[in-house]
Specification:
Elements: H1 18-27, E1 32-33, H2 34-44, H3 53-65, E2 69-71, E3 88-91, H4 93-123
Antiparallel strand pairs: 1-3, 2-3
Helix pairs in contact: 1-2
Length: about 120
């Protein structure tokens, strides 16, 4: 996905829904199943964002339809000792690109906010 050409339209998804951002962030480390994603998001947000089942699985379906995540189907890609019934997901190259684009967008907002705050503090 190219940052400037819209990557097949994925960049028009910015800003990302908070749950999408945190799901992609959780999967950027390794493949995980639903409850693992929920735990990661709870840890990363200090318990402020809880992904209820309908939100989690709806978001996973949407991200998969966009090609940002994929279900892990190969046995060698699954974590050792995992149940065959658990569905594991991994981030795709498009998902990494979309996550990077959102991080860049957020960095720009933070930079702008800091500059404005510093300018306001200097004029006070």
């Amino acid at each position: 996905m190219s940052r400037r050409d819209g990557g097949g339209g994925l960049e028009r998804r910015l800003p990302l829904k908070p749950q999408w951002f945190h799901i992609l962030l959780a999967l950027s480390r390794d493949a995980q199943h639903g409850s693992g994603i929920v735990r990661s998001v709870l840890e990363e947000t200090g318990g402020k964002l809880h992904l209820w089942p309908a939100t989690l699985y709806g978001s996973l379906e949407e991200l998969a339809a966009l090609g940002c995540i994929a279900e892990v189907t190969e046995a060698e890609e699954r974590p050792t000792g995992s149940s065959d019934r658990q569905r594991f997901y991994r981030i795709t190259a498009d998902g990494v690109s979309l996550l990077n684009a959102e991080v860049e967008r957020l960095e720009g907002l933070v930079t702008m906010a800091r500059e404005r705050l510093e300018a306001g503090a200097a004029s006070s």
